[in-house]
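Bench log, entry 3. Co-assembly request; chain sequences pasted below exactly as received.
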Amino acid sequence: MKLIADISIIPLGVGLSLSTYVAACEQVFREAGLEPRLHPNGTNVEGDWDAVTGALKTCHEKLHSMGVPRIATNVRLGTRTDREASMEDKIASVKEKMER
Amino acid sequence: MKLIADISIIPLGVGLSLSTYVAACEQVFREAGLEPRLHPNGTNVEGDWDAVTGALKTCHEKLHSMGVPRIATNVRLGTRTDREASMEDKIASVKEKMER
Amino acid sequence: MKLIADISIIPLGVGLSLSTYVAACEQVFREAGLEPRLHPNGTNVEGDWDAVTGALKTCHEKLHSMGVPRIATNVRLGTRTDREASMEDKIASVKEKMER
Amino acid sequence: MKLIADISIIPLGVGLSLSTYVAACEQVFREAGLEPRLHPNGTNVEGDWDAVTGALKTCHEKLHSMGVPRIATNVRLGTRTDREASMEDKIASVKEKMER
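Structure output for the full assembly:
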């Protein structure tokens, strides 16, 4: 089952600068082959359900091993059976409507 | 790694009444031993990371098998290493502060 | 326009114990007449759109005035025009399906 | 109070193709001067708190007027008092860490 996900990870108890931890998770997602696309409030990934949720687990484990005591993550998960659709398709579909 | 999660599942393409599908997922979570606690905008569960994300996958698969062509889920995921904390602990901690 | 919302507020830069801040927001919501219902991963409120978003703004302002330097909030917002539905209705509708 | 927000709007009861509605909200955000940046699972905006939440309300009203009977929106809201930070700053900060 293919999954498109938008992942926002918030490390707690390590102060206000979170970018080191976000970068660490980007690396986890890249190493998992998920081609993460960072945006100002999260990261979009697409792949097999187990690959995505497995990489997210690895990310939590990695941050905890870096000394983050608590993590609050928000994830938007999309699956569909009506047709194949990539993240690019979703963007293209909206842009087509905007140009009309 | 213990996970406390708040799961909001939105089936698309099946009209406006979503309760049948929410109920189906509640059953999935119960059968997985996650003791789901339904609230007006989602369901709270706690358990091992793999048990929770596995049950969520089963829920998506079940809804698709029931004819739901597209699903958009929002999940809040919390893990921590500083101490054990249950969902009850989280509520009790806030209520203690409110009563002061 | 009536709004049912589920609000999860995460204060950053104030350590790991967040319950004092969650309790402060509960008070803001109560004072706004929104009858907040706390759950382990957020608070459900219902009311007029402006009343809910106004109280959420007051909550952010209050936490900042308490010394919280950064806040990350996740909100689920539901509006509908097909019929009136309360938070109780949403829960009852799911429970009815579960009992069948 | 400056707000950086990530808004994911899900219209219900209008089938599976949501791009028309997403495009309509992009227009609302642009007209409000919020410079929305569409990504595959939402739209990032930044601006004054009231401008952002006001535009989001206008978006819900517009979709309902287009015939959408029910809307489920997920929003990530960030405010901070420690320093000024734009969406560009957030991305740049993570990329700097990744390149090291």
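Chain A touches chain D through 35 residues (CB under 8 Å). Strands of chain A lie at 2-12, 37-39, 42-48, 70-80.
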